Amino acid sequence: MNSLGGKILRINADGSIPSDNPFKDSPIYTYGHRNPQGIAWIQGTDVMVSTEHGPSGFDGPRDGDDKIYRIVPTY
Questions:
Q1: Separation in Å, CA 63 to CA 51, 53, 57
Q2: pLDDT tens column, 49-61
Q3: What DSSP character marks residue 14?
Q4: Under 8 Å between Cβ of 50 and 6
Q5: Between the CA atoms of 4, 64, 72 and 15, what dihedral angle is there, to the nearest 10 degrees?
Q6: N or C: which end of the chain has fewer CB within 10 A?
Q7: How many Å apart are CA 63 and CA 46, to the nearest integer?
Q8: What residue ranges in 1-75 does DSSP mark as E strands?
Q9: Is 23 exposed, middle or buried (0-12, 13-18, 19+ CB in 10 A)?
Q10: What sign does the dihedral 23-27-30-33 (CA atoms) show?
Q11: Distance CA 43, CA 25 (A)
Q12: What is the pLDDT of residue 61?
């Protein structure tokens, strides 16, 4: 938790930390991600999704194994 690597952060537009984030006074919203590349909200909902790249060949099989995840806060 001392590193921002592998984490999705959630902050307000003014840079402050939302009071309902999972960890008090922390921008960390979720953790345990391998390689998040894109994040989006599904329009008209409160659903957040993230894409993560799979192995690139040198670190695993070349079949991609990319993923799309629904993001929910880690408590």
A1: 16, 11, 8
A2: 999 877 766 656 6
A3: T
A4: no
A5: 40
A6: C
A7: 32
A8: 7-9, 28-31, 36-41, 48-52, 67-71
A9: middle
A10: negative
A11: 28
A12: 62
Strand, helix or coil at 61? coil
Confidence band (pLDDT; 50, 70, 90) for 35? confident
The tokens for 25 are: 């006074």
| 45, two tokens | 């909902």
Judged against a pLDDT cut of 80, whether residue 62 lies above it is answered with no
pLDDT of residue 64: 66
Structural domain spans, the chain? 7-71
Q: What tokens were used for 60?
A: 């695993």
What Cα–Cα distance (Å) separates residue 65 from each residue in 4, 41, 52, 60? 24, 22, 9, 10
Beta carbons within 10 angstroms of residue 8's beta carbon:
20
